[in-house]
């Protein structure tokens, strides 16, 4: 059992050294194999952002936890996940244009496609 804990800690250490925070560590996301312990499901992971200039502002700037941004193929829309409804849902909004955002998932969402 201690060996599993060491392997999980090593995997998390490697991810953290690359600026990745897993954010969903639970027994269901750990697989024990003959070759060792595997850490799975980085779907909610966050990548640390490099230091930005003091006057830089993120887009979009809200008080909610928003991540996994994806542009539409034509570059006119931005889809992302946000917890503003109390759980993570997928939202879309025009990119650099008029109009508000729309929630496009209704039962939770972890990654816009």
Model description:
- With 113 residues, the protein is an alpha+beta fold.
- It is built from one helix and eight strands.
- The strands form three sheets. Strands 5-6-7-8 form a four-stranded antiparallel β-sheet, with no helix packed on it.
- β7 (89-94) and β8 (102-103) form a beta hairpin.
- It is elongated.
- The mean pLDDT is 78.
Q: Which features would summarize this protein structure in a list?
A:
113 residues; alpha+beta; 4-stranded antiparallel beta sheet; two-stranded antiparallel ribbon; 1 helix; 28% strand
Number of strands: 8
The class by helix and strand makeup works out as alpha+beta
Total count of helical runs of at least 4 residues: 1
- Shape from CA axes? elongated
Strand order of the largest sheet: 5-6-7-8
Our Rg estimate from Cα atoms comes to 17 Å
Which stretches are poorly predicted, pLDDT < 50 over at least 5 residues?
none
**Domains (count):** 2
The sequence of SSEs as H and E is HEEEEEEEE
Mean pLDDT comes to 78
Distance between the termini: 38 Å
Q: Which band does the percent of strand residues land in? A: 25-35%
Described by strand count, sense and barrel closure, the largest sheet is: 4 strands, antiparallel
Oligomer: single chain
Please estimate the helix content.
Answer: 10-25%
């Amino acid at each position: 059992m201690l060996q599993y804990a060491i392997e999980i800690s090593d995997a998390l250490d490697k991810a953290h050294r690359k600026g990745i925070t897993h954010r969903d560590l639970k027994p269901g996301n750990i697989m024990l194999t003959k070759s060792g312990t595997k850490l799975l499901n980085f779907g909610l992971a966050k990548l640390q952002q490099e230091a930005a200039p003091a006057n830089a502002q993120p887009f979009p700037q809200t008080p909610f936890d928003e991540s996994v941004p994806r542009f539409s193929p034509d570059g006119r829309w931005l889809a992302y996940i946000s917890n503003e409804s109390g759980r993570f849902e997928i939202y879309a909004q025009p990119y650099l244009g008029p109009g508000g955002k729309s929630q496009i998932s209704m039962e939770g969402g972890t990654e816009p496609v």
